[in-house]
């Protein structure tokens, strides 16, 4: 299921053609939920200036009005195609993170021990005991 989440809007403080509180920009997320998988696109959409015939007072605007604006201004084919692609990659990732085929921790600890031994030999500092002595 694909749907809109409208979480903010920017409203003009300047009167235009006798109209006030004109929504100029909508902040949104377009979500796609398929079972346990969820992907989304975030965006801002600038709206064209309204005309007096289609203008609706700010306090009378509904979620459906915002959705209609977003669907009329955004390229829905492209936007939903991006969501489809993201969902496909989420369900069938082209690259996976896998455990290394060797024990990296043992190698890292071995090199740390070599480094500590070299420092100890050079500076006569013993990091391997409960106290540190400098000679």
Describe the structure.
The chain has 135 residues and is of the alpha+beta class. The protein has 2 domains: 2-91, no CATH class; 104-134. The chain is 35% helix and 27% strand. The chain has helices at residues 63-73, 76-91, 104-123; strands spanning 2-11, 23-34, 37-46, 125-126, 133-134. The chain has a 3-stranded antiparallel beta sheet with strand order 1-2-3, covered by helices on one side. A hairpin with a 6-residue loop joins strand 4 (125-126) and strand 5 (133-134). The chain is elongated, with a radius of gyration of 29 Å. The termini are far apart. The mean pLDDT is 88.
* Unreliably modeled segments: none
* Number of H- or I-type helical stretches: 3
User: Can you tell me the overall shape?
Assistant: elongated
Major β-sheet strand ordering: 1-2-3
Mean pLDDT: 88
Brief summary of the model shown:
By secondary structure, the protein is an alpha+beta fold. Helix content is 35%, strand content 27%.
Protein traits:
alpha+beta; two-stranded antiparallel ribbon; 3 helices
């Amino acid at each position: 299921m694909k749907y809109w989440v409208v979480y903010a809007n920017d409203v003009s403080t300047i009167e235009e053609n006798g109209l006030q509180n004109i929504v100029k920009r909508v902040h949104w997320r377009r979500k796609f939920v398929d079972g346990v998988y969820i992907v989304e696109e975030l965006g801002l959409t600038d709206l064209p200036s309204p005309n007096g015939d289609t203008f609706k007072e700010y306090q009378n605007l509904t979620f459906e009005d915002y959705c209609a604006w977003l669907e009329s201004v955004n390229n829905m084919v492209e936007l939903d195609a991006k969501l489809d692609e993201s969902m496909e990659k989420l369900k069938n990732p082209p690259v996976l993170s896998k455990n290394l085929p060797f024990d990296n921790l043992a190698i890292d600890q071995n090199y740390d021990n070599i480094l500590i031994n070299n420092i100890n030999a050079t500076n006569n500092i013993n990091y391997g005991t409960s106290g540190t002595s400098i000679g």
